[in-house]
Amino acid sequence: MSRGTVVRSTVMGFARALARALISEDIARRRGLLQSLDPRVRLVGLFSLVLAVTLSRRLWVVGVLFVVALAVAVLSNVSLAILAKRVWLVVFVFTSAIAFPAIFLTPGTPVATFAGGAVHITEQGLTTSGLLIARVETAVTFTTLLILCTAWAQVLKALRSFRLPQEAIAMLAMTHRYIFLLTETATQVFESRESRTVGVLPAAEQRRITAATAGVLLSKSIDLSNDVYLAMQSRGFRGEIRTLSEFHMQSWDYVGLLAFLLAGGAAVWMGR
Amino acid sequence: MAPIFDLRDVCFEYERIPALRGLSLQIAAGESVALLGANGSGKSTLLRLLDALCFPSQGTIDFGGQRLSQELFQKDGFALGFRRRVALVFQNPDVQLFNPTVFDEVAFGPLQLQWPKEKVVSQVAATLELMSLAHLRDRPPYRLSGGEKKRVALASVIVLDPEVLLLDEPTSTLDPRSQSQIIDLIQEWKGSSKTIITATHQLEIVEDIASRVAVLEEGKLAASDSPAEILSNHELLLRANLVHAHRHSHGTVTHSHPHLHAHSKHEHEH
After folding, report:
1. Is A6 a domain residue?
2. Is the pTM of this model over 0.90?
3. Hey, are the CB atoms on B141 and A177 less than 8 Å from each other?
4. What pLDDT, in 10s, does the model give residues A121-178?
5. Which domains does chain B possess?
6. What ipTM was assigned to the predicted interfaces of this complex?
7. CB B216 within 8 A of CB B18
8. Would A112 be classed as within a structural domain?
9. Cβ contact, residue pair A238, B92, below 8 Å
């Protein structure tokens, strides 16, 4: 595959990923357990469960946490098929590749022997690999649930509540906002080029056009950032961003927070 | 009446390429002015100068009798007061919509101008209602249509209730219905005490949105008069690239005349 084609397919892939992000926001608008909670509770609660998964040393405890993740997904109207396709399968393939050598390399009681006794699969190796895969699957499931059930804007607002620097949050927000616009522009540039191209261009010509396109997009993004800064100044921005927190904790949110923290705490205690 | 804006011999350049060349113009408080000109005539640059986002390389701009300068805008008191009184709606709404949600977008200006939070919440809610945007309050800007983006961009400045509204091509690239909604809004403001300065190259909306038209041609003021006078001056409009010569045949005779889009249909004598 030539470099020009690689860049084009990367941009198109990115556009598809952004389209998926739009679907995620539809899930965030559904009625469900996580959606009914204050975004700050979701952030703290799911983070505490991820922490519990990471600290737990017992496979059965991680298994119980995975079941909790499934229950939360079902109660939040998140399709298990989406989780299987987007999370479990991908995580399993990548984590297995990392965990595979541990099956043979971890010292312990052999459960299977190969190559005339030179290579062993050990019980401890299987447990270590299983624990790693289970931990990653469960932690990523909790993180995905947060992202699917919370619009990005609310995640940012929740982060603001935890006194992260406003400038850092504003940069994240603007990156998220303008990445859509620039991806759309890049997609249009490639489509318009394709509509005027007959046959396959030589690799050198494709590289030249790709470099020229990158240059155009860079200058467009610089112009855009200058104009955005002027638009901010025009509405009174003086170097310090002021924002509004609209969140109000209800009694249901306190119940949810307590449940998350108790579950996380219990998992850490039992998984020691 | 003393002008709210008084521009004298204003010049401005973008990296040595002149955008405005010795422009002088006075705008009275409460006046509604259309800046009419072809692409590249300097309309957008003039609006940015009026909003003090950039400053003339030569000449002066006075606002309410005070000369605008970079030094003056170093002072928080003056800068915030000016931003409270003068607001600009950019031509490209994507430039102006940089917040995560519509509500945040409309609240951005009031928050930067340090309004009390209760007032911010109530004014933003009222503005969203006024602009029929309440149902979009939690929507991110990239999920809005072109017309909705333009309305949110307008809402984000009218929430400040500014004395002077600067509008850069407010109806360009909009469908007819959205265009009509924006024109209705401008007409409502026109009847109030606000000063409205609209840059446009759409002749068909000029009479609806302005009581005076300033025609810009290559960075200079070519004419300033009532909409009726300007729109009937075909020679001026042709020279300023606002109309084009319409060539057509009647039997064996071919002739040309200015092609004006100011009305839904045009008639001429042969």
Report:
1. no
2. no
3. yes
4. 888 888 889 999 999 999 999 999 998 888 777 787 788 777 777 778 778 777 777 7
5. 3-259 (3.40.50.300)
6. 0.83
7. no
8. yes
9. no
